[in-house]
Amino acid sequence: MNVLNRKMEKLGIRIWTKKKLDPRYITLEQVSATVAYVDKSLFIKEFLDSKEIVLIMAPSGFGKTVNMDTLKQFLLGNSFIFESHHLKIRIEHPEFFKRHCRKHPVIHVNFAHIDCTSHATYLSSMKDLLFATFNEHAYLTEKTEDGKFVWSDLTLRTYLKFPPEMVMIYMYDRELSEELTQNDVIQGLRILSIFLYLHWNEEVIVLIDEYDAPLKQIMKQKNMADAELILTDFTSMVSAVLNNSECVERALINTCFCPEAQVPTYRRHLFLNNPKFSKYYGFTKEEVVGLFKCKELKRLRRTLDDVHKWYGGYELADETTTMYNSRSILTYLTQSVICRKPVLSSHWFNWNHEIKWKQLFAVRCIREKIETLLNGGEIEVPMTGLLTVGDILVPKSLIDLKPEVINEEAANTFIQFLCLSGYFSVKRTTDDNVVVKIPNLETKYELEKKCHDVGLFQRKYKLDQNKIEEYGNALKKVAQNKDSNALIGLKNAVQELFASPAVLPTSDNQFCSLLYTLAYCEDLYVAKVKRGEEVIETLDFLIVEENTGIMMEVRLDSESAEKAHSGIFDYESDVFEYSNFKEITDKVYVGLHLDKERNVTLCYSVNQAEGEKL
Questions:
Q1: Are 393 and 550 in contact (CB under 8 A)?
Q2: 507 and 382 inside one domain
Q3: Angle between helices 119-135 and 164-171 (to 10 degrees)
Q4: Does residue 166 belong to any structural domain of this protein?
Q5: Which InterPro entries does the entry link to (predicted)?
Q6: What local confidence, expressed as pLDDT, does residue 155 receive?
Q7: Which of 451, 469, 502 lies at the terminal end of a domain, its last residue?
Q8: What is the pLDDT of residues 277-331, one digit of tens each?
Q9: What are the start-end ranges of the H helices in 297-431?
Q10: Residue 320 placed within a domain
């Protein structure tokens, strides 16, 4: 073994075949056959030694499913993959491997495909899951050495309120399982844990993947009564099996977020905030550098600095360790090897529940927080890592509200969801508060897409694409010419934009968000300006084109263009003290007004306070 390979051995890095994988559903068998594999198998020892119910809260793309599948294969006794790939758990801890491999009964469930369209579909799909899970243990329907069935053991009757033989019949027959009651479904996994415990005379290990998948679906639920009923049933079912402490000693739960614990023995490990488990989720900088030392990836080494910028930047609580999105790294390396061309871009996977979130980025109190982050700033928000049942339903509630009704508390809860989804690097300042920032170009790109989605506004306000382009061109002409003709062109462009059949905005906030986003999407530099550590509340937006700055205030109905224009000068000097804008030499001040009859008036001035109305 050469020096490089020995170094790679220390890092736990293996390079295998050039096999492409679907980054959404990665198992140990799949990932160990890809262009890059980082050995995290020591997680197994860390987990089994803990003897507790561990809930891992980490974003999608950081290897939760791979780690769980690695643990599952170990518990099922599939030792070949550990031996053939010389994984650390097999090489460094042979006695532990021998003592625990295939020595524990295990229940594994994945909630990814539970249908929460209604309470009825939830129950039906959960019955499918229970049927499949029970049939992974079909040996329980066979007679034991003494000629008995495990479910005929009289001790079962001390655990169950109904005949155990009936449970076995219904759980192992898909047609009959349709007759299971709501309570039967809630108790299903608990019953299986009892059967396994009695059969093996050994505490059961429960593995739950995609715990938050039903919760994400509930966020889209139209019927609030159904949403609350599903949430109650779901958390009750999980609590029933995990509270069964006599039969269940350990459990591993993968999730991005979860409601408050109904199980007292939960040990939550929040992503980036727990040194015991955080190192097993995502790649460390050392591991990424090690991957690029391999001969198969030699030609990609020149992109390493860019890889840091695109996929790294997640800082652990110790502030000395930087983590990377492992799925993005894997996808980048795999595609680069297969296509023989580096593809530095976003490999983020947008889940369906996040698509609904996009319209919330147009809400001003949310948008201002995101803009601060996009401009390189940090914000402090409350986050305990524990969500109430009400919090789970917050995104749906926000979508149903008018933007101006959304308050600071609701906006902070939404930011917490974004944190738990992996958009930010999080540093805890107190028990209840964290400071968040954008870690890398990948998440910045995704947030910019959501924050500046012109398609959303086009559909909502029925805007014509040609008129959007005319608005963008008019702004550019104002920056270039800075004269009355250019400003008349801007006034006319805005009036045409909102000509019938366009839908009029109903508040200053909506009007501002709309014009802001359309300007951004027309390749103009649009900024939300900071005043010290605070975002200026009253300035709508600043457009910068070369050495020209266009400060804009917009108003609806009862206000006026003149009032909007004069309001700019209350804080104009502070704006241009901001370092990013000190090079601006020409300043155009624009107050814009739109009334209910779709008439637009404009008041402007160039390098002076006195305005001219158009």
A1: no
A2: no
A3: 100
A4: yes
A5: AAA-ATPase-like_dom
A6: 58
A7: 451
A8: 888 999 999 999 888 887 777 777 778 889 999 999 998 877 778 899 988 888 8
A9: 304-311, 326-339, 352-357, 364-374, 389-392, 394-400, 408-420
A10: no
Q: Are residues 536 and 598 in the same domain?
A: yes
204, amino acid identity: V
> What is each CA distance from 19 to 78, 336, 482, in whole angstroms?
21, 12, 57
DSSP 325: -
Same domain, 521 and 550: yes
Residues 475 and 373 in one domain: no
**Cβ neighbours, 10 Å, residue 279:** 17
Q: Quick one: pLDDT at residue 8?
A: 42
Number of domain units in the chain: 3
> What CATH number does residue 418 fall under?
1.10.10
> Which alpha helices (H) appear in 340-393, and where do they start and end?
352-357, 364-374, 389-392
Please list, in sequence order, all residues whose beta carbon lies within 8 angstroms of the beta carbon of residue 36, skipping any fewer than 6 positions away: 13, 15, 291, 294, 297, 329, 330, 333, 334
Query: What is the distance between the alpha carbons of residues 313 and 376, in angstroms, rounded to a whole number?
Result: 13
CB 470 within 8 A of CB 366: no
Same domain, 442 and 465: no
Closest CA to 252 of 315, 303, 217, 206: 206
- Domain limits for position 194: 105-202+204-246
User: What does pLDDT average to over the chain?
Assistant: 80
Going by the DSSP 8-state scheme, the letter that residue 177 receives in this structure is H
- Whole-number Å distance between alpha carbons of 36 and 297: 9
195 and 240 belong to one structural domain: yes
Does residue 234 form part of some domain? yes
Whole-number Å distance between alpha carbons of 44 and 274: 17
Q: Which amino acid belongs to residue 57? A: M
Q: What is the pLDDT of residue 181?
A: 85
Measured between alpha carbons, how far is residue 489 from residues 30, 477, 512 in Å? 58, 8, 19
Show Cβ contacts of residue 530 under 8 Å, excluding neighbours closer than 6 positions.
372, 375, 377, 536, 578
Q: Which residues of 37-55 are buried (b: 16+ CB within 10 A; e: fewer)?
A: bbbbbbbbbebbeeeebbb
b/e code 533-548 from CB counts within 10 Å (16+ = b): eebbeebbbbbbbeeb
Cβ atoms of 160 and 194 closer than 8 Å: yes
Q: Copy the structure tokens of residue 550.
A: 């266009």
Which residues of the chain, if any, have pLDDT below 70? Answer: 1-36, 143-144, 147-171, 220-222, 259-269, 338-341, 350-356, 358-359, 362, 364, 384-405, 454-456, 521-540, 571-582
